[in-house]
Amino acid sequence: MIKKIIIIIICCQFGILNAQQGLSEFTIVDNTTSTSILIDKKDAKVVEIASQIFAEDVFKISDKKVSVITKKTNQSYVIIAGTIGKSKFIDALISNGKINVTEFKGQWERYAIQVVNNPLKGIDKALVVIGSDRRGTAYGILELSRMIGISPWEWWADVTPEKKHEISLSVENIVSKGPSVKYRGVFLNDEDWGLQRWAALNYEPETGDIGPKTYAKIFELLLRLRANTIWPAMHSSTKPFYSYPKNKEVADNYAIVIGTSHAEPMLSNINTEWRHATMGEYRYDTNSDVIKDLFTKRVKETSKYEGIYTTGMRGEHDSPMIVGEDDTDSQVQLLEKVITDQRNILKTETKKNPNTIPQAFVPYKEVLKYYQSGLKLPEDITLVWTDDNYGYIRQLSNPEEQKRTGGAGVYYHTSYWGRPHDYLWLNSTNPVLMWEEMSKAYEFQSRDIWILNCGDIKPHEYNIELFLDMGWDMTHFEKSSAVKDHTTKWAAREFGKNTSEEITDLLTENNRLAFIRRPEFMAWSQVEPVTKEGETELTQFHYGDEVNTRIKSYQNLIEATESIYKNINKNRKDAFYQLVYYPVIGASKLNLKWLYSFKNKFTAKQGRESANVFGQKSIDAYTRIQQETDYYNTKLQNGKWHHIMTMSPRFLPVFSQPALSHVKNQKASIGLALEGYQMEVNQDIINSYADVLPVFNSYTNSNYFIDVFLKGQGTVAWEAKPKADWIKISETKGTLNNNAGNEEKRLWVSIDWAKVPKGENKKEAPLGHDFQLIPPSYKVNSAIDFVSGDKIITIGISVYNPEYDILKDYSGFIEDKGFISINAENFSRKKSGTQANWEIFEGIGYTNNVITALPRTAKSEVDLKSIEQNSPALEYDFYAFNFGEVDVRLQAIPTHAPHTGRGVRCAVAIDDAEPVIVDFQTFGRSDTWKQNVLKNASVKSVKQIVNKAGKHTLKIWMVDPGVMLDQILIDLGGWKSSYAFPNETFKK
């Protein structure tokens, strides 16, 4: 059967547009013929380039050639592509009334696609692509590539298209909207570890660097993704962009706008262009003439090309600017002089008014302090706000700044080198966090420049596309759920609809785990200076064992990834490997390497033989990363990507094999370890209730683990004998030996509540008892005997199973072991405010959901009376068995206040107490900020009073909109240290 591709173009996330009625079919190639692409040779070079790309795309699908021609043809079917005012063919269609361009003529980067009958003499039908400017035309042509099934990642991720014999399009007449953000692009940064090595040693050895050949492929990718801007690679491993004269010509041919980072003023690369031997010190207060000469040279060189000149100045190597006097006022004054001089250079060399030349000012790190201290900035310069390097935007435009003619933008990181720790290997930035921060920026009118620091491009493919899709059309991303929809459509496009939901779930879970702790942060070490691995905060003996829970989550991810990989079509397996398999397996194995090393050290202290097994599993995980990275570099696509992937950027401790403990041989014996205890069970105390599991609570249906483990070499048998029929154990007997994987067994103990004797029937709970020391009338005791040979070890079991009338029909949060744990999105009630309402963001936070008050532009409420009357409120019903002063801990996403006068605040009270304001804001690069970004969590606590045992309500009010609440813990004195809050204590 002849394969045929027919695409019907309708408004969709990856498409467009303002559609007019009516479908027209147009055949590009079939079994006998193929069309041509007619362009005007005087049109912009990018129109020819895009046409050639499309022609090659058609050939990749059909093995049939489509010619790009510049003279009229007598073919029946022709594609006509051109720019209004630059293409004689398009202008002829306009003048003859064949097409109407009134809606978008003269506008920024818009295009139309429509079928026109008898467009020009000798042509029966044409598929016409009209651009309002040169990039609009290129985007329109490459939209045809999307329509016929070509992924933007066809080359960069080897998304091999399906072969078809016939390609036809059923096209609605469409007109694209203008982009949501004017300049949209990427920053190639920290390229030392992949992109530069790959280009120099593999793709462009003739240059030995990232040169014009490499940039041409990058620019093609940007056009396919509807981007228009790049900040070129700038580390010392790479020669400056302008040191290769052809680079700027290639950029202009592809219609790509060149900009530079906060540390590279006036399109210069200080990191590699400043030479102390001949130029002196890089200090404006003592050496301004030489610095201005460099700026002048660059403006002369670039004035005829599209560029964005970064104004201001920082020091060398991404450091603060050096000035004579170390005070903020002097720094501000000098920076103002720098900007004045830069604008004079622009005026002199371009013969244009500076307010007509695109310029950017990036208040990054210490420069933000200068700006906040009163630096005067010409209002036509675009303010490019930055995140704190970890995904949280430090500041956005206030209402006055939003009036500036230069507007505002954002420089955002999904890759970073620096304190408190790098993340240069994998893409570990949660896409919903990126959506939340960029949608916030858009809401605060930062719509002129969006730049993503994407490191080496790979493996940041998905987040790059999401970032640029948002910049292209933010109207598709009004809700957090849009990110999941985007991922599903992306996965369907790349791998087919039959696996798209599975892949989305896989990536969502991978992102959730990385949000809790990025893979690159799993050694609990830091940089600048580099420290050795530290002690993990994950507990191994409370709350079900956080280390083991994370191990299971990553094992499930690996199994799911490998299962999907087996079923991916052959022509997309390499793409799946790059876009999904390697990033997920890499993250999983780096986690497992450290998680197993934590278990190795913990179990070795108890003399467990399993310590050696955990150590080997840690080594195996490390080895797997080596193997996969080697495959990526040397075997994937026959070595196409050799040198692109480094598994240990900067050779930091987190990427090394951890030091491991080894348990030496001894006589075989049995050991027990209980949840809630760091040390093993003391076997010297025989037939005693001294070792007891935490109390089982019927209201929360608790369950706990017991580890039965082997000590020494040999074989031991064991049997667990419950002393009551209501005690359930996952396994009751077994044998331990030194065969790998059989050195220990984790048992789960639960309760058959239907068989447990009831405690006293009370109308209310007892007042203020300690949950671990419950009076006998409310607690039922029994035990489990563990028998091994002639040894019996007794483990006490206590259950809390009273009948309280007040709790019979109760549904809400309930105290368990001296605390109440709540996921913030699971409120009992919510109340609307006068200006804002609570909404749930999906796909972010420890629980994969957070709750926030929107819109972010709503007025902050700081007066306590006003808070209670006007602010939206959340209410959480809970039941406490204890009373007195409690510690209410709130965990929020560690965002920053959008501008001066705003905070990151909410207000808290229990019952009718006066609200207490809680502020999550951090300042600068404080130790608190470091811990927050390493953990993606900001935890603040406030003291409250629970005045009696019984029912209560926790109330949380908005003070500042946009605060994202993740988890809540009401600690009545029983919470033990853990990385995350315990699971919810909820009675249904």
General description of the model:
This protein has 988 residues and is of the alpha/beta class. It has 5 domains: 4-175, Chitobiase/beta-hexosaminidase domain 2-like (Chitobiase, domain 2); 183-478, TIM Barrel; 516-655, Up-down Bundle (Methane Monooxygenase Hydroxylase, Chain G, domain 1); 669-805, Immunoglobulins (Immunoglobulin-like), CATH 2.60.40; 812-987, Sandwich (Jelly Rolls). 29% of the residues lie in helices and 23% in strands. The chain is built from 20 helices and 40 strands. The strands form 8 sheets. Strands 1, 2, 3, 4, 5, 6, 7 and 8 form an 8-stranded mixed beta sheet that branches. It has an 8-stranded parallel beta sheet with strand order 11-10-9-16-15-14-13-12. Strands 28, 30, 33, 35, 36, 38 and 40 form a 7-stranded mixed beta sheet that branches. The radius of gyration is 32 Å and the shape is globular. 51% of the residues are buried.
Largest sheet: 8 strands, mixed
**Count of extended strands:** 40
The fraction of residues in strands falls at: 15-25%
Sum up the overall morphology in one term.
Answer: globular
How are the SSEs placed, and which strands pair?
Layout: E1 4-8, E2 18-29, E3 36-38, H1 45-62, E4 67-69, E5 77-83, H2 88-95, E6 111-117, E7 125-131, H3 134-147, E8 166-175, E9 183-188, H4 195-203, H5 212-224, E10 229-231, H6 245-253, E11 257-258, H7 270-273, H8 276-279, H9 284-302, E12 309-311, H10 328-350, E13 359-361, H11 366-372, E14 382-386, E15 408-413, H12 431-443, E16 449-455, H13 461-472, H14 481-495, H15 497-516, H16 546-567, H17 573-604, H18 610-635, E17 669-674, E18 696-697, E19 704-711, E20 715-722, E21 727-729, E22 733-737, E23 744-751, E24 761-762, E25 779-788, E26 791-800, E27 803-804, E28 812-814, E29 819-823, E30 829-831, E31 837-842, E32 849-854, H19 864-870, E33 873-880, E34 884-892, E35 905-910, E36 916-919, H20 927-935, E37 938-946, E38 950-958, E39 965-971, E40 986-987
Parallel strand pairs: 1-8, 3-4, 3-5, 5-7, 9-10, 9-16, 10-11, 12-13, 13-14, 14-15, 15-16, 18-26, 24-27, 28-33
Antiparallel strand pairs: 2-8, 6-7, 6-8, 17-19, 19-23, 20-22, 20-25, 21-23, 25-26, 28-40, 29-39, 30-33, 31-32, 33-38, 34-37, 34-39, 35-36, 35-38
Helix pairs in contact: 1-3, 5-6, 9-10, 12-13, 14-15, 15-16, 15-17, 16-17, 17-18
